[in-house]
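Final report, results section. Input specification for complex C-07:
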Amino acid sequence: MTASRTLEAESLALGYRDRAVIDGLDLAIPPGRITAIVGANACGKSTLLRAMSRLLAPREGRVLLDGRQVHRMPAKELARVLGLLPQSPIAPEGITVADLVGRGRHPHQRAFARWSRQDDEAVAAALTATGTLDLAERAVDELSGGQRQRVWIAMALAQQTDVLLLDEPTTFLDVSHQVEVLDLLTDLNRDRGTTIVMVLHDLNLAARYADHLVAIAGGRVHAAGDPSEVLSADLVRGVFGIDSRIITDPATGRPLMLPLGRHHILVEAGA
Amino acid sequence: MTALARSTEAVAIVAGARRRRGRRATLVITGLGVAIAAVFAVTLMVGHTFYPPGDVIAVILGQEVPGASFTVGELRLPRAALGIVAGMSFGLGGVSFQTMLRNPLASPDVIGISSGASAGAVFAIIVLSAGAAEVGVFAIVTGLAVAVLVYLLAYRGGSAGTRLILIGIGIAAMAESVIAYLLSKAGSWDLQEASRWLTGSLNGASWAGAIPALLALLVLGPVLVGLTRSLAALRLGDDTAAALGVRIGLTRVAVIVAAVGLIAFATAACGPIAFVAFLSGPIAARIVGPGAAPLIPAGLVGALLVLVADLCGQFAFGTRYPVGVITGVLGAPYLLYLIARTNRTGGSL
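Structure output:
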C-alpha cells in the first residue's frame, strides 16, 4: 500500500444550520505522513474531519481526494480508500472483538456475497498489527479503554484504506494508553505508508507524534507545518489564548509547550 | 515461529471464530424452521374436531376429504398461513426498526405505527362503513402517514434516536385516543369488527385476507434481508457506518418504507397483534448471540410467537382469546423490564 493519496480542502465553509464553524479553509494533507489537527474546544476540528470523510456536506468549497471530490464519489469506493474512526463509535452489547473488526470489511463486500478468504486475512492482519489477536473471542465491552481503542483501530485497519482519519483517538485514555495508541498509529504509518490524520487534544503529544501540525482558529488554518518550525508561543496565544513557553523535549528533541497560568510562575512570560 | 506461520495461524483463528458464529446462526434458523413446521402441523390437526396427519396432508395435496376439506382447507390452513406471514412481517419490520435506531424500544408497535394503522382501520369501519379491502388500504395509508409524521417531527439535522421514540410514543397515545373516541361513537354492529383492530386476531382469517400480506412479505422481506449488513454496520453508530460506506439516508428510507409496509399489510390482515414486532428482535438476538442484525431469525421468531400464542389463545383456556391478548400478556412485562433497566443504566433510552 504505497499509493500516496492526496487529500486537500479548498476554500471550505462548514456549519450546522445557522452556525458557521469553518469559513474559507484551505488545507493540504501531506501523503504518507502523520498530520495532527489541534485547536481550542469547538474550533471545528472534528467538523473538518467529518467533512473530509464526507459525513458532512460543505456549504462552500470542496474536499478533493486524488483530485476527485469526495462528496461525489460512490460511498463504498471512498470507504475503500479513506477510513474514519469517529470519536465515540458504539460497540453493540456483547459483540466479540473478531466480529467487530470484521465490520471493517463492509466496503469490500456485496449485499449477499459470502465472506471471502481475503476478508479473513484482512481481519487477521488487523488483529495482529494492533496486538488484539489474543482478544479475538472476547466481548468488546469487557475490555479496558486502551484495549477497546486498539480494537476500533483494528476495525479501521481491516478496512484497508490508504488514508485513515481519527477523531481524538486518545480521549478518555490514561497516559500510558495514549502513548500506546499513538505508537501503534506511528507503526502503521511507517510499516504501511498509511496517511494518518488525527484530531488531538494534547498539543504536546501532537507535536511529538505528528510530522505535520495543523492549528485551527477562527474557522481557518492558523498555522501548518513541521511542529518544530510552527509551534511557538505566538501560535499558542493565537490558537488557545494562553501564554506559554516552548522548550525542546530532551527525550525526543520535539518542541514541548509549557502553559503559563496565573500561579506558580517563577519566570516572566515569554522569557 | 516464522512470520508466515504466525499469520496463517491468525487467519485460522479469525476464520474459526467466524465459522462458529455462522454455524450458530444456521442452527438457530434450522431449529426455528422445524419448530414452526411442527406448530403449523399441530394447528392444522387440532381443533373442534381432530384430523389425523393423513387427512391434513390429503387436504393440502388437494384431495377431497369429507369434513376436513372445509375445516382444514378453508378455516385452519388460512389461519395458520396468515399467522406465519403476519408473524414474519411483524418480526422483520420490528427488528429492522430496532436495529436501525439502536434501541429495542424503537419497535413500530411502540412508536405508533401499528396504532396509526389501527386508527385508520377503525375510522374506515365506523365512519365510512367500508368493506374489508378499503379497511386494509386505510390501515396501510395511515400506518405509512404516521411513520412519515414521526420521522419528520423527530428529524433534526440527520440524527433521530431517543427523540424519535418519545415522539412515537406520543403519537401512539394520540392514535389510541382517536380509536377510543371512534369506538365510543360506534354502533354495536361495528364494535365487533372494530375491536379486532385493538388486539389483533386470526379469527376469520381467509385466503382473500392473507394473500396481500403474503405478497407484501415476498416483495419487502427480501429488501430488508438484503440490507442486513448495512443494518449491522448502523449498530456501530451513524458516523461509523457512513465511514464504512453505508449510505445512511438511503438505507433509512429503504428500511422505513419496507418495514412500515410489512407492518401495515400484516396489520390490515389481522390487526396489530400486540408486541410481536417488539418481542421478536430481542428474542432472536438472545438466541443467535450478540453482534449481528438477526433479521431472518427475528422473522422466524415472530412466526413462531404468533402460531404458539394463537394455539394457546384457542385451546389453553376455557374461553377463546384472540392471539393479541396472549402476546400482549407476554410483551407488557418485557416492556416494563426494558424501561426499568433503562432507568437504572442512566436514564437515556
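Chain B has a mean pLDDT of 86. The CA atoms of residues 86 and 266 of chain B lie 5 Å apart. This concludes the modelling results for the funded period.
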